[in-house]
Amino acid sequence: MLKPLAAALDSTDRAQVMAAAWEAFAVAERVADDAAFDDDGDELQALIAAQASAAGRSLLPLPGSGHPVDVPPLPPGAKGLAPYVELLRHVQATLEHAAAEPGTDDGSQAAVREAAGKAATAAGALLATRER
User: What is the pTM of this model?
Assistant: First the structure.
């Protein structure tokens, strides 16, 4: 389920990378929302993760095509969130790389760099959601 997103994040096509990052933020937001309502998590950290994901997604261009990724019910414990934390870290690294590429305008670079920071914030908060 997450492998196609991870593969798209590694694409050489910038539009495909941005679309995959946008969708990864959407997935992370849904996961964080779900985690906020389960009994073994920190609701505040889940809310921070959801807000950072939404903010990161808002900084990226809308995808030209694609479809939402299905998010299955979350397994219990921190291991259930681990694939999504890993995905957000992949988004962060990919966006940092994209922001450093020559040939993009300063406004776009700044937005992509800020989105990378939102991915880092979301990953940290999502990881902390089930650490207590």
Answer: 0.93
